[in-house]
Write the structure tokens for this entry.
Amino acid sequence: MFQSFDTTSSPASGPSRVKALRERFDALGIDGFLVPRADEYQGEYVPASAERLSWLTGFTGSAGMALILRSQAIVFVDGRYTTQLVQQVDAATFTPGDLVGEPPHSWIAAHAPKGLRLGIDPWLHSGAEVKRLTAALAGRDGSLVMLDHNPLDAIWQDRPAEPMGAVAVQQEAHAGKPAADKIAAIAQGLAEKGAHAVLIADPSSIAWIFNVRGADVPHTPHPLARAILLADGTAELFIDAHKLGPEAARHLEGLARRLDPAELADRLAHHAKGGAKIHVDADATSIALTRVIEEAGGVVVEATDPARLPRAIKNAVELRGSADAHVQDGAAMVAFLHWLDTQQPGTVSEIKAVNVLEAFRARVGESLQNPLKDISFDTISGAGEHGAIMHYRVTTETDRMLLPGELFLIDSGAQYINGTTDITRTVAIGAVPDEQKKFFTLVLKGMIAISLARFPKGSRGCDLDPLARIALWKAGADFAHGTGHGVGAYLSVHEGPQRIARLSTQELLPGMILSNEPGYYRPGSFGIRIENLVYVTELQAIAGGDLPMMGFETLTWCPIDRRLVVKALLNEEEHQWLDAYHQTVRAKLSPLISDREVLAWLEQATQPL
């Protein structure tokens, strides 16, 4: 199993740990300390050794930050985690904060005590974030204190060791482009801009540039490493030698000089001497590294990670691999949904559903000789009221049965060497109330609207986001998460800069993969989400139109529960889309399914409305 159901934190631990942290404030010369979810690599998903936010507060979500002051402790989360936060932290110790509407720097600017001395670990905060914090504190006559060590690490007595996951080569047959060509293109860009070097701090960019994958972080196959790429075409890769087997070592020898991670600061200072211009992505790089460049006399040039956009725009090989991975994943999903339908309501638990789905993914992977490498995130398996917790993580303590008359939401994904998948289906366990069918259909209308969208060059995620919400808005409802996130090619299931969301200003470009996942959540009652992955197509002429338009091509193939669709709420175009989608699902998945009972279930599940 790639997923654990152990309870990894407890609200009861928070008070004593916050007390121990506050007891160190005077010696450190601070009045508060900021604890981000991010690790030293600014990642969303972090190794166990960097789960500081969870250890301190009990909150286990993938996005958040805690501001610990002398008399207040606030945990900031976004809309996905508001319900989860209340359940996981001690209410007498922690106050909920809004990570989007009033993030820590905004809260500080409006509410912080005058003269606040706020401590941070400079390895855990980006340069962009430090700028925001500094400006906010200045408005309160406060100051930012860069600590030379993280006080939580001294309190955390049983902190796990740092990971040493093995590195594997991502062959060109899956990557689609040689690593040497990627390095040369980045070097050319640096030379054209008069820069000496660029610091690559994002492990996913390291994986993409050097055509490698790692095993340091749960469910995200990138190695925790950094690199310096120079305008002369050479590169230095900072990664522990223990992570490299013979094949990976040979592969990297021809691309970069390998150095230990501890040597990064010295090499960065060396390259910065004499006022050299070093490109740094302020959103992805720890302020600690930026300071090394400045203190050595170098010039920090804030520039977007040169791999970020090329990594997001998948080449033809990556798109073909992703399409193949999704057909394979669809076959596993069908086997699971058939199994679920054959079980007596009340006999399957949330954990059992997760285990069975993972087993089907592994079994299909073996049969097709394309093994399941990992899941792409912890499966969200929520029955009834648990479905309303957007990022619910089932544990042995919260596990419950799937009962008749309720909805079951399962959001899952897989990592295959040729692609990353992410799919959500909400299904009926027995007969469910008509109101739940109504909201299911409204969510489906939003998902279809994105699937059918056509949009001109220059369109952004924020331009399309309302399409997924309008049916819900008309019913006086909404959902508190983005409509879609970017997805990597056998990399992170959450990849930027592409998104479909209210605040996403990134232009959508051909080859970008995104999720399409509107939802509806009624706390304490039920939750609905329907999710397919799509990719942006090239501009195409529209018959009788004035402008060529881009659109989306669907990657995910799996039945949508027709039992929950209120046909009268769909217009003709939506009706036709659903029937055509199910016809394609049947055509693509049937050749991969040998079990006659599963085939018969698929035939029935994909019938026209």
User: Anything to note?
Assistant: The two ends are 37 Å apart (CA to CA). The domain at 313-605 is CATH 3.90.230.10 (Creatine Amidinohydrolase).
